[in-house]
Amino acid sequence: MRTPIPVAEAIGRIMQQVRPLETEEAALEEALGRVLAEPIVARHSVPPFDRSPYDGYAIRAEDSEGASGSARIPFTVIGEIGAGHVGEKTVGRGEAYRIMTGAKIPDGADAVVMFEQTAETDSGFSIRKPFTAGENISCKGEDAAEGDLLIEAGTRIHPGTVALLATFGYARVSVSRLPVVGILATGTELLGVEDELQPGKIRNSNGPMIAAQLGRLGVPVRLYGTSADDLPACTAIVKEAITECDAVITTGGVSVGDYDYLPAIYDQLGASVLFNKVAMRPGSVTTVAALDGKFLFGLSGNPSACFTGFELFARPALLSMMGDRAPYMPHFKAELAEDFTKPNPFTRFIRSVWQMTGDKITAAPAGFNKSNAVSSIARGNCLIVLPSGTRGYAAGDSVDVLLLGSEQGAKDWVL
Ligand code: AMP
Ligand code: MG
Predict the structure, then answer these.
(1) What residue ranges line ligand 1, CB within 6 angstroms?
(2) Is there a single domain that holds both residue 183 and residue 241?
(3) For the chain, does the N or the C end have fewer beta carbons within 10 angstroms?
(4) Does this model's pTM top 0.85?
(5) CATH of the domain at 370
């Protein structure tokens, strides 16, 4: 007996079972894509000293008072400060240091005149406008003050985060451990990627696809290859996989056909099935079970359903195990680019392409859209969500769109 539950409820049941993984230290070079287990707090001010944002001259602003085109004020240059160096002298009345971008403002000076604002003289330069104290100076702490909470724990590390960690000297950072995820493609019809086609057989595309979906999350994969639709053989592999991994993703074998053995396998393992039918297209047969804090994701063998099932269910579960507080796909509204007249009792997820059309974002289905489609997965860059209902949808309707492949996520689920 299978009772379909709404997608949001299915996700909710999964998220309730998530147990956060332990934390560990990662070297900064290996931190990309990991989830911070500690907040980034400013260990010192940024910038750490008042510095020049331009190449020019450091002066005392008060000495520039009254400067104009007809009454230029001259300055004497007393030295030069390149980035990384410090001026030894204190700038006195009518004096200036030649200073380069990034160099520390010398004592006495409180403004920087850009080269473009000066005219050269024998002993230095002259200016034609007055400067105010602090003008053209990057002040100590203007970016971050010591002690500021800059990034919260539970944030995925992206290149900008790496820059911030480096700024504060984090050679190592506390992150969540990565889950190890096993992949098994089931189906007697499956051939390897390198195999020639044979009558009745197809190549296993789901295995490599799931490995790639995990790969772009930065999650390590353990490959269990393919298995024929054979209950004892398949059970043995899944059993081994769930002891070796934090989660196991299988594809195929969750429908109600004669050779769909995954439900029986979950039963034998004593796993608790969180749901075995979801009110969605494609992938209504998606089945997820939990065992000792580990997940068994039984995704449909149909490629589009398999792809969508991973993004909707496995992705937030794994990211949440990694401590990510924004584990859902980012979503936004777009204008439906074409009619979608077929009404559906189940929520539809359509592999689609979003783009800017004039001044608005439109989203159009990416072509042949049945659950067994593989070409539309390759073309799509998003999923259009069409909630269930009796009516179809028309071009111009505002629809929810889930962004695929984003390194950052959303804190909430779209529906
Ligand atoms: P199943 O979910 O096992 O009923 O399979 C549904 C459909 O997906 C069938 O047409 C299968 O041949 C196909 N299929 C199953 N596994 C894969 C796979 N790993 N790669 C590509 N297609 C598959
Ligand atoms: Mg099958």
Answers:
(1) 185, 187, 189-190, 202, 204-207, 251-253, 255, 257, 300-303, 372
(2) yes
(3) N
(4) yes
(5) 2.40.340.10
